[in-house]
Design goal:
Elements lengths: L16 E5 L20 E2 L2 E2 H11 L4 E6 L4 H6 L4 H9 L3 H11 L3 E6 L6 H6 L2 H4 L4 E4 L3 E4 L7 H12 L2 E7 L9 E10 L2 E9 L9 E9 L3 H6 L11 H11 L2 E5 L3 E4 L3 H14 L4 H11 L4
Parallel strand pairs: 1-4, 1-6, 4-5, 8-12
Antiparallel strand pairs: 2-3, 6-11, 7-13, 8-11, 9-10, 10-12
Helix pairs in contact: 3-4
């Protein structure tokens, strides 16, 4: 049990809202992303963004804001009703596919806002200020798809539970060893760790020198609404972007923030290697594909 921050005798507001920034260009997946949003690239047969939305919904989220930009209309179309497709499936008696389509359009109350200019992850989240109001909210970055099995809670639910323990913003982290850690934001702890909780001093983005820890920020956050005021006074980096991690560092100093080491298999969908790993492993988990696909993989690896 965390003892560093004591929750007052007040009821914490339930977490029912989530924000999903999805305005990136997806340049690492060109030419595919010239016409198709990177968030719509399928892992087997399901767009990666749908896995992220489903994680939020399975965690008790009812209202989701997806932050898009020009050319991402396919995202809105995917989560909307498709009357022509559904009518044709119904006439053809393809009830299984009809249910799939209808389930997608009824996942949650989904709203959209366009990010007019790319000014960093922090400014993308700031677009959610009116949507969030004065409530705690989850942030799920679409480049990170995180698998949890039936015995594990979805990662967003893990962070919600952590928030209910501390009453503070929660940074979702995992331990990464090796040089790959230098691609991410690394936790600078203040020396206090209890179980999966580590009190946050600050975050070091893409560290080049000695590492302050091996706890790495991996695209999941549970934030209190004061983050918006902090974002508004966060100085841009030399490239003109405002980073969410910088604002969280300020929040940690002023109010307190905890990093929480979540359970789950995380895939970096913004990276080709991570995307391919996700495609292979999700296929191997599919009971209709796994046997044939395993046999194929065993045979094909002999020739490469």
């Amino acid at each position: 049990m965390i003892t560093e921050i004591k929750i007052k005798n007040e009821t914490l507001m339930p977490v029912k809202k989530a924000v999903i920034p999805a305005a990136g260009y997806g340049t690492r997946f060109l030419p595919a992303t010239k016409a198709v949003p990177k968030e719509m690239l399928p892992i087997v047969d399901t767009p990666s963004l749908q896995y992220v939305v489903k994680e939020a919904v399975d965690s008790g989220i009812t209202d989701i804001l997806i932050i898009t930009t020009r050319g991402k209309e396919a995202i809105e179309n995917h989560f909307d009703k498709s009357f022509e497709l559904e009518t044709n499936l119904e006439k053809a008696g393809k009830e299984e596919y009809l249910k799939l389509c209808r389930d997608i359009s009824s996942l949650a109350n989904i709203e959209y806002v366009r990010q007019k200019e790319m000014k960093g992850s922090g400014w993308a989240v700031h677009y959610a200020k009116n949507f969030v109001g004065n409530e705690p909210f989850a942030v799920l970055f679409g480049d990170d798809v995180i698998y949890t099995n039936d015995e594990e809670k979805p990662v967003t639910k893990q962070l919600i539970d952590a928030y209910m323990t501390t009453g503070t913003s929660i940074l979702g982290v995992q331990r990464i060893d090796g040089e790959e850690i230098r691609k991410y934001g690394v936790v600078v702890p203040d020396g206090k760790t209890e179980g999966r909780f580590t009190k946050l001093k600050s975050l070091l983005e893409k560290p080049k020198g000695d590492l302050p820890s091996h706890l790495t920020s991996l695209g999941r956050f549970l934030l209190t609404p004061d983050i918006f005021e902090i974002l508004e006074r966060t100085a841009p980096s030399p490239n003109g972007e405002i980073y969410l991690t910088d604002a969280i560092g300020t929040q940690a100093a002023e109010r307190g923030v905890y990093a929480y080491e979540f359970v789950g298999r995380r895939y970096d969908i913004g990276d080709k290697q991570g995307f391919l790993e996700a495609c292979v492993e999700y296929a191997l988990r599919d009971k209709n594909l796994s046997d044939g696909f395993k046999k194929y993989l065993k045979e094909i690896t002999k020739t490469f």
